[in-house]
Write a structure and sequence with these properties.
This protein has eight helices and nine strands. It is α/β, with parallel strands linked by helices and 232 residues long. The chain folds into two domains: 158 residues, Alpha/beta knot, CATH 3.40.1280.10; 56 residues, tRNA(m1g37)methyltransferase, domain 2 (Trp Operon Repressor, Chain A), CATH 1.10.1270.20. It is elongated. It starts with a strand and ends with a helix.
Length: 232
């Protein structure tokens, strides 16, 4: 999978993409992430990529021209050998997008080429959303300073699902929110710590009973903490 990210603050994405599982995914050649400074396509020598909004109001808006140039140039780079076009999805990270969840992550993990646009200031010119963006995604009902942290979340959630990224191929299948259930409780050594003991069933060696216990615990935890997931 290849992911391009457009941003005015690429430094915010350096650490999340260069450590732990995301680093492993890239080292294995399973995931390629390229972070692009939008000012490369600025409208003048001063690196201008934003301007005041028409109609007045507080906050600057990211301009059409730099974004268009960047999207079209990167699309051409990704296009060779792909008759369907350069990107499978061009995603704008925005508070008013669809709420990002595990189902969306699963779906995006099946794509080959993604372009993520990190908004900043007051957002991006609406014409970019109308003519280029294929999907708009929010990581929650709150406002951040920009789309860089949401982009890092999306890359991490999607990247870890790629075959071969995790050491245990089945690990991602049992994460919270797969099948709309929260993950069951987990335990490790010692078996008895301060009198707090691991449930007997987990020590039984009976894998059928363990699977049944875990499923029951997932249902109970979901019912108590996130009942809305069961309705879905």
């Amino acid at each position: 999978m290849h992911i391009d990210i457009l941003t005015v603050i690429p430094e915010l994405l350096e650490s999340p993409l260069q450590h732990s599982i995301m680093k492993r995914a890239q080292d294995k050649g399973l995931l390629t992430v390229r972070v692009h400074q939008l000012r490369k396509w600025a409208v003048n020598e001063y690196g201008m990529v934003d301007d005041y909004q028409y109609g007045g109001g507080a906050g600057m808006v990211m301009m059409c021209e730099p974004l268009t140039k960047a999207i079209e140039e990167l699309s051409q780079v990704r296009k060779p050998g792909r008759p369907e076009g350069g990107f499978d999805e061009i995603i704008f990270l925005t508070p008013d997008g669809e709420l990002f969840n595990q189902k969306t992550a699963n779906s995006l993990s099946l794509k080959e080429n993604l372009l993520l646009i990190c908004g900043h200031y007051k957002g991006i010119d609406e014409r970019i959303r109308e003519h280029f963006v294929t999907r708009e995604i929010s990581v929650g009902d709150y406002v951040l300073s920009g789309g860089e942290l949401p982009a890092a979340i999306l890359v991490d959630a999607v990247g870890r699902l790629l075959p071969g990224v995790l050491n245990d191929e089945t690990s991602a299948l049992f994460d919270s929110f797969q099948d709309n259930l929260l993950a069951p409780p987990v335990y490790t050594r010692p078996e008895d710590f301060r009198g707090w003991k691991v449930p007997d069933v987990l020590m039984s060696g009976d894998h059928k009973k363990i699977d049944e216990w875990r499923h029951e615990q997932s249902l109970e935890r979901t019912r108590n903490r996130r009942p809305g997931l069961l309705d879905e």
